[in-house]
Amino acid sequence: MTEGLQLRDLNGSDPDAIAAAFQRIGWLKPPAQFHRYLAEQASRTRTCWVADLSGAFAGYVTVNWKPEYPLFAEQSIPEIQDLNVLPSFRRRGIGTALLDHAEAQIARVSASAGISVGLHPGYNAAQRLYGKRGYIPDGQGVTYRGSHVHEGQQVVVDDDLLLHLIKRVLR
């Protein structure tokens, strides 16, 4: 693991600080999102881990223990969601450490981990990373805003066009 990297649970002092860090780079991640994560963490439907590098916020990842995507829900496959590392902290192993931690936690309760990835170029690095980590498409095609896309259907290529992937994790 990267020297000086600490992974910890999201806590009540994080929402404003995390939102401000993303606001500084022009990304909209409002405090309400992280307050919702805290509430879901309290109800045990989601866990959020924060990465601090030498005391500075660097990124986070969540696991949704009760995903809405039908295949994951039907097969009780926890879904890794919302992996984000601030650009100034990328290429230092932080995303890998967050994914390693999330997968290890999932392996305690499931033989598989799910993850979804956008299909536009903004997700190129994530697509490569997930493939290198052994995630493969679930065989159900892509979804747009929660519904499967059918042959010939036209959709907008934005953050809502997703490919869903599965990886076997060791128990």
Structural class: alpha+beta
Strand portion: 25-35%
Strand/helix succession: EHHEEHEHEHEEE
Helix content: 25-40%
- How many separate structural domains? 1
Rg over CA atoms, rounded to whole Å, is 16 Å
Number of beta strands: 8
**Order of neighbouring strands in the sheet with most strands:** 1-2-3-4-5-8-6-7
Q: How would you sum up the major sheet?
A: 8 strands, mixed
Low-confidence stretches: none
Please tell me what the overall shape is: globular
CATH topology: Aminopeptidase
Write a compact overview of the structure shown:
Helices cover 30% and strands 32% of the residues. By secondary structure, the chain is of the alpha+beta class. It has one domain (5-168): Aminopeptidase, CATH 3.40.630.
Compile the SSE list and pairings:
Layout: E1 5-9, H1 14-24, H2 31-42, E2 46-53, E3 56-64, H3 70-74, E4 79-85, H4 94-107, E5 112-118, H5 124-132, E6 136-144, E7 147-148, E8 161-168
Parallel strand pairs: 4-5
Antiparallel strand pairs: 1-2, 2-3, 3-4, 5-8, 6-7, 6-8
Helix pairs in contact: 1-2
